[in-house]
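Predict the holo structure. Ligand: adenosine-5-diphosphoribose.
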Amino acid sequence: MSRKKITVVGAGFTGATTAFLLAQKELGDVVIVDIPQAENPTKGKALDMAEAGPVQGFDANISGTSDYAETAQSDLVIITAGVARKPGMSRDDLVQINQKVMKSVTQEIVKYSPNTTIIVLTNPVDAMTYTVFKESGFPKHRVIGQSGVLDSARFRTFVAKELNLSVKDITGFVLGGHGDDMVPLVRYSYAGGIPLETLIPQDRLEAIVARTRTGGGEIVNLLGNGSAYYAPAASIVEMAEAILKDQRRVLPTIAYLEGEYGFEGIYLGVPTIIGANGIEQIIELNLTEDEKAALSKSVDSVRQVMDVLN
Ligand code: APR
């Protein structure tokens, strides 16, 4: 059996961290692509990572390039390319700039890997995943966005700290768009199989939910420059592993809805089964009226961003 081939587009903080984690877990050979101006640092990062192989004991070829021909026949493509919001740039400007990046990257990917599966991380991720879906012409199950694994991971981190328990025993679920309106589903969250609602007082749970919603901003404020990348990269790699090993994991991902949860023509964070075919299934949960209202508000936020797309 030959090794899998994984392309990571964008050799910035998130892309490089993702590539290194993929190699460490021996999920396949990794090609990192960035723009021509960034070709040398990209090659340097790739070689530096490869030289960690003997020490860490992983077998994976890692290369850096600006030539998409080297990405040909990838089994999986992960898009982290994009521009971060700079002072003076409006959120709408950012959407349109990253939309252009998604379009050009997607054209190259599709040209060289017409049968691949794409995971998108670039923000605003719901609208960027939609852009890649439209531009690629791929079936919806082969274009997936990442946000729920990360949002749930933040929720699980805070819950584990609150209860002084292993993060391994905490499960959580987050629905909706990747933003302050996301909907952490406390009813479906557990510590070692015990419902969180029976372990944590309501006011503390509400505080954890609020902190989860603004988890990305908390990191941005602490870093002072740039946004989170360790946990985002780890989250992407969990999805990548599920696809490459056909694990059929139940993970919250950004999937294209055609009527599920009452929404149409939108990429949104929902519980899914992830395996070799990408999104194998969207799981529809019964929601309370409050949860439905919160999800609807989150959809409105995502649609507002989508309205800015060209
Ligand atoms: N093609 C390929 N790479 C590109 C392109 C392009 N058209 N445009 C920009 N890039 C590259 C940049 O050269 C840079 O190396 O994308 C990389 C982005 O890296 P960083 O600026 O370090 O950003 P990072 O922190 O990795 O975040 C990337 O992930 O979580 C999201 O919100 C985050 O949208 C952002 C993305």
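The radius of gyration is 19 Å. The pocket of adenosine-5-diphosphoribose is lined by residues 9-15, 33-35, 38, 80-82, 84, 101, 104-105, 121-123, 226-227, 229, 232 (CB under 6 Å).
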